[in-house]
């Protein structure tokens, strides 16, 4: 499961660049996605045609974004953490992993559902629809806070990972832009 997430994780990045009409960065996102496939030279040639046009880039990124969304739907927090942990220092990894461990097998959607269920239950208690003792309310609050904390750690880790991937694409886009600018300068001065 985690392998599929990593395999397609540049697709949503590319889609964001497409929405911003940054075709260069969208193409680089697609190139990085394809690099992860470990294709041989013959297979790479086929994909060069795809990335030669805006329409090809849009179609390919759309297909791979769908595959990415399919792969994350069934992923557990542990699957995600195995990818995202590389963004953190060792001390941070231990702390965050300990907070996530009780929920390791849960999916993100399950976490959202569990949080909503507990929030609704607390709301019912506050509206006096459900009688609970002070101890039960405290336990419910503590449980809700643990779920929220684990969920927020994972969502923040996802955002950090996304930012790291975007930074890689951005750096390559700027290198490519600089290369083009140098070519133009050479043409201006006749080199």
Kindly summarize this structure in a few lines:
The chain has 191 residues and is mostly helical. The chain has helices spanning 2-8, 10-19, 23-35, 41-50, 54-73, 77-84, 90-100, 108-126, 134-189. The chain has two domains: 1-75, no CATH class; 76-191, no CATH class.
Please provide a written account of the structure.
The chain is an all-alpha fold and 191 residues long. It folds into two domains: 1-75, no CATH class; 76-191, no CATH class. Helices cover 81% and strands 0% of the residues. It is built from nine helices and no strands. The radius of gyration is 22 Å and the shape is elongated.
How would you describe this structure in keywords?
9 helices, mainly alpha, 191 residues, 81% helix
Q: What is the makeup of the main sheet?
A: none
For this structure, the quaternary state is single chain
- Helical percentage: over 70%
Rounded mean pLDDT is 90
Uncertain ranges: none
Backbone shape: elongated
The helix/strand class is mainly alpha
> Distance between termini?
52 Å
Number of strands: 0
Which sequence of SSEs, written as H and E, runs from N to C?
HHHHHHHHH
